[in-house]
Amino acid sequence: MQNKITELFKIKYPIIQAGMIWNSGWKLASAVSNSGGLGLLGAGSMYPDVLRQHIQKCKKATSHPFGVNVPMLYPNIEEIIQIIIEQGVKIVFTSAGNPKIHTERLKKNGIKVAHVISSVKFAAKAQEAGVDAVVAEGFEAGGHNGREETTTFTLIPMVKEKIQIPLIAAGGIATGKGMLAAMVLGADGVQIGSRFVASEESSAHINFKNKVIEAKDGDTLLTLKELAPVRLLKNKFSNDVLELYKRNPSKQDLIDLLGRARAKRGMFEGDLEDGELEIGQITGLINKIQPASKIVKEIISEFDFEKNNLKGTMF
Amino acid sequence: MQNKITELFKIKYPIIQAGMIWNSGWKLASAVSNSGGLGLLGAGSMYPDVLRQHIQKCKKATSHPFGVNVPMLYPNIEEIIQIIIEQGVKIVFTSAGNPKIHTERLKKNGIKVAHVISSVKFAAKAQEAGVDAVVAEGFEAGGHNGREETTTFTLIPMVKEKIQIPLIAAGGIATGKGMLAAMVLGADGVQIGSRFVASEESSAHINFKNKVIEAKDGDTLLTLKELAPVRLLKNKFSNDVLELYKRNPSKQDLIDLLGRARAKRGMFEGDLEDGELEIGQITGLINKIQPASKIVKEIISEFDFEKNNLKGTMF
Prior knowledge:
2 copies of one chain form a homodimer. Chain A is an alpha/beta fold. Chain A has 2 domains: about 5-205 and about 285-305, TIM Barrel; about 215-280, no CATH class. Chain A has helices spanning about 5-10, 25-35, 50-60, 75-85, 100-110, 120-130, 150-160, 175-185, 195, 205-215, 235-245, 250-260, 260-270, 290-315; strands spanning about 15, 40, 65-70, 90-95, 110-115, 135, 145, 165-170, 190, 220-225, 230-235. In chain A, strands 1-9-8-6-5-4-3-2 form an 8-stranded parallel beta sheet. A 3-stranded antiparallel beta sheet of chain A has the order 7-11-10, covered by helices on one side. In chain A, strand 10 (about 220-225) and strand 11 (about 230-235) form a beta hairpin. Chain A starts with a helix and ends with a helix. The mean pLDDT of chain A is about 95. At the A-B interface, helix 7, helix 8 and helix 14 of A face helix 7, helix 8 and helix 14 of B.
């Protein structure tokens, strides 16, 4: 079966594994691509040289398409884009920045571009900038997140009304039912993050993976809105942030508390107390660590089952 | 066609019209019930005597089941429950409080009870308290809202895992596609608020209805979390609240700013500047004022079309 997203990226299933910092290296991306989805490397936590190595290893590990997620506010953005072009990567997901700046150049180099947005206005701007697809990410998503706090359930149909290019839903999706619901709301495909954090191939620390499969509803919060809103597991660090807020902090106070490398410390090094543990609300539904191939297979099998049985089993 | 919700309430379609303050009087509730859904009176903005009149008028206006939404922190709660029993109302939706206190008494009087929650924990407690159904309301919903900020897309499947009684989804639902998506995620029925605000029969002021159909994504915010989190349209009042927050206000400062009757002033009297305008994020998808019967018909017709065509039209 084919749809806009599988055709665009030449993949089997319209499932994109999010290019998450400290989680999405070549092992995860190639495993997802080998399973029929689209694996993304997370350039946001890689020095340019490290990214080059991950791209090269990913090419060896899969003959299927894979891509790179690039936060455009990255300090070495020029070098990163140069490496992507030089290495012949064919798919780039851009986020956190203006899609006008790099889309044309990427497309001239034969690269398909998807851009992550969290509002209708920026979806329209991304389409205008010539991107091939839009990722609409809801408030429930883990990690960095929109200021408007619009949820997946409401964002997808509102974006769908205003754009004609393919639409990928992100935020809150971890199962075949979630995928089907997102597509009923208007998405052509889904980007899945949290569930792939709890994969065997994710480069997250095992402490973090274990925390993700234990977490329940209400265990995350969106905070640090004055810097860039980010959704985290509640822990000592997030409590420290809330304590600081009680004292009416300046932006600099927040920057000082955040410090450097909090996300690495939490997700990659496994410091569950003082690290930043980025994860989505749907963590409450994730309760085992599985191979990425199993995750893709389960999602597709549940999706198919639900889709084919809707007519008979529901009001 | 029948399901758990239509059987429980003896209605044709599993669509519940939310019992919203200043919007949901006998005209709206009876119009929805006459259209095959379940209309609810919003007791939260009615003095006991006013509620009695609305119940009596509703009984005259429809021979179909209707109910009353009762916020349990209401000052005259005893009198309200007495009137409901005395008037022979057969369905009560309770919110904002402990379902243990009144459920047994209501059920002894032959009343079906649904309880509104915003977390898995309180869904389980409601089931334990013996309610007949749970309404799980996501972060995107208008008006008063949960502290956990869990969205509809993630709350529904997480609640579904933990309860066996019928589950009604609320928050972000305004269309047949939204209804179908909610049911794919695990709901047996849906509660719809914002779209019925923009109905001819809603008792909201025309200024407020017009504002609802003009609003776009990003035009609401959740605020006043220290009192009770509430989702509002952004306006002068909500800006005043944000200004006050910059000065590190005490809870009393917030209570003082809110003052009395803000919601009535905004939604019922049409003061778009200084009134409190409670509405959900899905307001961005609502663009016309229609008769309630047309709203129900459109939702069901879109729901049926999408459900029957899923198999053929989607990946």
